[in-house]
Amino acid sequence: MRQLTTDHLAALLAAQEPPCISLYQPTHRHRPDDRQDPIRYRNLLREMETSLRRGYPAHDRREVMEKLQALSRDRHFWDHRTDGLAILASATRFEVFDLQRPVRELVVVADSFHVNPLLRVLQSADRFQLLCLSRDGASLFEGDRDALDPVQLTDLPATLTQALGDRLTEPHQTMASYGAGAGKGGKEMRHGHGGRKDEAEVDTERFFRIVDRGVLEHHSRPSGLPLMLAALPEHHAAFREVSRNPLLMADGLEVDPGALDPDELRRRAWQKAEPLHRGRLTKLVEEYKASLARQLASDDIAQVARATAEGRVAVLLVESDREIPGSLDPVTGDIEPGGLAHPQVDDVLDDLAEAVLRMRGEVVVLPSEWMPAETGLAAICRF
After folding, report:
1. pTM beyond 0.85, yes or no
2. Measured in whole angstroms, how far is the alpha carbon of residue 19 from the centre of its chain?
3. Are 204 and 88 contained in the same domain?
4. Maximum Cα–Cα distance for the chain, whole Å?
5. Quick check: is 282 in a domain?
6. Apex CA 191: angle with CA 189 and CA 193, to 5°?
7. How is the beta sheet containing 106-110 ordered, strand by strand?
8. CATH number, residue 174
9. Which residues contact 365 (CB under 8 A, 6 or more apart)?
């Protein structure tokens, strides 16, 4: 799974060369439901081509359509889906994101990308990352209470050998196995001199440092998500000693992650992540109520829209699965009602979230039972 970050969102919000195609589709993880996914995708492509012909010359759309059509024929691609699919394509960009939550089926062809469905996924409060670590390898997952999927590693070696290469200490370089069944009960022989255990621990420490730097730089900082460690107890101690990741959770899974099936790994990880999640939500709700008492918060959509246009919203809480049809004028804060059935009409809540993010504010999507207001949103203002 490719990690979706605020950096991706910022790049998609920047000026683009039209036409900009935004395709969202619910997909399925398992058979037989997933057999319909490529068929629904081809139907969306036909709808997209109709929109393109109406507004853009053939030379503006040929290259991007070839890339989109190639996906429809990629069997491997359709055999490895999650719960949702987002494709953002133009003459200069082609971005594909696997989503861990279903999205409404939608195609928009315009002069800019339609990113609002990504906002709900990106700003959901229950997301976390899980680092599965052993002395010889590392893998990263991202998930929530319902799903846990492997993340495509960026500039990060997945094994000790990849990380250290010819810098491995002598005992690692000259290790060999002899005899029938070596490695499976057979006798293992190592060549080398001196304290092999000490030198192996040096390699492990070096590997853990490399993993920590790579995860922090390429995954934790871009996502801002809490990071949970899943490893044997002795590896917890060794990794935490060298880690400089401020997002590393104090409580992790002291277990061999390779011994757990994916669903059990997700279940145990969420058991650890849920208290942190609930604590964060409690703090946000208390902060909103305290700000409301100081007249620095509001749940009135018109007031929040004006405060957003003026750059005063520091934190915007949005109710998950809530939609308010219409569009926002980001300059004046005026709201124009509309119907979501029209492809060019957005959800006001998503428009507000996008505007708050542009103003360097924070957006958090909360389940309805945690919302401190009945209007679908609650804003904490800077002044």
Report:
1. no
2. 26
3. no
4. 78
5. no
6. 130
7. 94-99, 84-89, 20-26, 106-110
8. 3.30.420
9. 119, 120, 123, 124, 125, 318, 319, 320
Is residue 103 within 8 A of residue 86, CB to CB? The reply is yes
Same domain (yes/no): 151, 267:
yes
Domain that holds residue 66: 6-122
Question: Which CATH number characterizes residue 370's domain?
Answer: 3.30.1330.30
Report yes or no: 76 and 52 within 8 Å, Cβ to Cβ.
Answer: no
**227 and 269 within one domain:** yes
Kindly state whether residues 36 and 171 are assigned to the same domain.
no
* Contact in structure between 108 and 52 (CB atoms under 8 Å): no
The DSSP code sequence of 33-48 is GGGGHHHHHHHHHHHH
Distance CA 201, CA 13 (A): 46
Task: Give the E-state strand segments of 102-196 in sequence order.
Answer: 106-110, 128-133, 138-143, 148-150, 175-177, 188-190
If asked whether residues 236 and 308 sit together in one domain, one would say no
Q: 84-89 and 20-26: which strand pairing?
A: antiparallel
Side chain identity, residue 21 = I
Of 56, 89, 122, the one marking the end of a domain is: 122
Tens digit of each residue's pLDDT, the chain (383 residues) = 788 888 888 888 888 888 899 999 999 999 899 999 999 999 999 999 888 888 787 766 778 888 999 999 999 999 989 999 999 999 889 999 999 989 989 898 888 888 878 888 888 889 999 999 999 899 999 999 999 999 988 888 888 888 777 667 655 444 433 333 334 444 444 444 445 557 778 899 999 999 999 999 999 999 999 999 999 999 999 999 999 999 999 999 999 999 999 999 999 999 999 999 999 999 999 999 999 999 999 999 999 999 999 999 999 999 988 888 888 888 999 998 765 444 454 688 988 998 998 888 999 999 999 999 999 999 999 99
In angstroms, the CA 383 to CA 373 distance is 20
> In total, how many domains does the chain have?
3
